[in-house]
Design a protein that fits this description.
251 residues; Lambda Exonuclease, Chain A
C-alpha cells in the first residue's frame, strides 16, 4: 500500500516509539541491549532500529489511512469551532500577515506531492514559507516565546513546515525551489459572528481584537530546514508502508 502522508499528519507519524519493534530484536540486538556499557557504534545500532519503529500513535494513523483507502471513507476529523473559524478567516489572515510583514506574494493554491508526502503551504516567498494558524480568541493566543515554541512543537507544526520545505525541493510537477526556513504565524483575527454562541463574549472576539495594535496580533515561530529530519520522515513513511502490508481486515 503506497501511502502518501499529508504534511499536517506528520507529527502523528514521527512520534518516538517507546521500545524497538520486536521484529528487529535479533540475538545480536538483544545482546547489545543487555549491555550496561555500549560502544558508540552499538548505541547507533539501537538508535537506528528505534527510528525504524513506529509508535502506537503512528500505527493508529496507518490503520486510519488503510481503512480510508479501502472504503473510500470521508475524513475522520469533522471539524471544530477552531477549524471553522480558521477556514472562514484564512484569506483575511494571510492578507493581514502580508501587510504587516511587508510580504510581496500571493496566497499559494498549489498542492505539492512527492513519493512520500503531500501539502499546500499558505505563502511561498523567495526566501521562506509562511503558514498561518488562527487562534480561537485572545486567551488562546500564545504571546510569550516559550509558549509559542511549546504550542508549535506540541501540535507538531514543526514537522509540517519541514514537510513543506522538502516538497518545494522534491516534487513531481514543479521546478525545485530551495528554501531553508519556514515561519508558523499565529494570527489573531476577529471571530465571525456565525461562529459565536450566546456563551461567547462578542466584544472579546471582535471589537477587542480590532482595537489591538496590529503587531500584537501576530506571534511567529521559525523552523529551519534539517536534512536529517527529512531523511527520518522518509524512513518513517517507508516503515508505515511496510506496516500497512501486515494489516489484515477481518471478515
Amino acid at each position: 500500500m503506497n501511502l502518501i502522508f499529508r504534511c499536517s499528519e506528520l507529527h502523528r507519524l514521527m512520534g518516538n516509539a517507546k521500545s524497538i519493534d520486536s521484529a528487529f530484536l535479533t540475538e545480536e540486538v538483544q545482546a547489545i541491549k543487555a549491555k550496561k556499557k555500549r560502544t558508540d557504534e552499538e548505541q547507533k545500532i539501537l538508535d537506528d532500529l528505534l527510528d525504524k519503529t513506529l509508535s502506537a500513535t503512528a500505527k493508529t494513523l496507518v490503520k486510519e489511512k488503510a481503512r480510508q483507502l479501502r472504503h473510500k471513507a470521508p475524513s475522520k476529523f469533522t471539524g471544530s469551532k477552531e477549524t471553522r473559524k480558521g477556514n472562514l478567516v484564512e484569506d483575511d489572515a494571510i492578507l493581514f500577515l502580508m501587510q504587516q510583514k511587508f510580504i510581496s506574494a500571493e496566497k499559494n493554491t498549489i498542492r505539492f506531492t512527492n513519493e512520500w508526502i503531500t501539502g499546500e503551504p499558505d505563502i511561498i516567498t523567495n526566501t521562506a514559507i509562511r503558514d498561518t494558524k488562527c487562534p480561537w480568541s485572545y486567551w488562546t493566543m500564545e504571546y510569550f516565546k516559550e509558549d509559542i515554541e511549546g504550542k508549535a512543537l506540541d501540535a507538531g507544526y514543526d514537522w509540517q513546515q519541514l514537510g513543506y520545505m522538502n516538497l518545494l525541493r522534491e516534487n513531481h510537477d514543479y521546478e525545485p525551489k530551495i528554501i531553508n526556513e519556514a515561519y508558523l504565524d499565529f494570527i489573531l483575527m476577529p471571530t465571525p459572528k456565525e461562529c459565536l454562541t450566546r456563551y461567547d463574549d462578542e466584544y472579546l472576539h471582535i471589537d477587542y481584537v480590532l482595537e489591538m495594535n496590529p503587531s500584537d496580533r501576530i506571534s511567529s515561530y521559525r523552523v529551519e530546514y534539517d536534512q536529517k529530519k527529512i531523511d527520518l520522515i522518509k524512513l518513517k513513511v517507508e516503515m508505515a508502508r511496510e506496516y500497512a502490508k501486515t494489516l489484515v481486515f477481518g471478515g
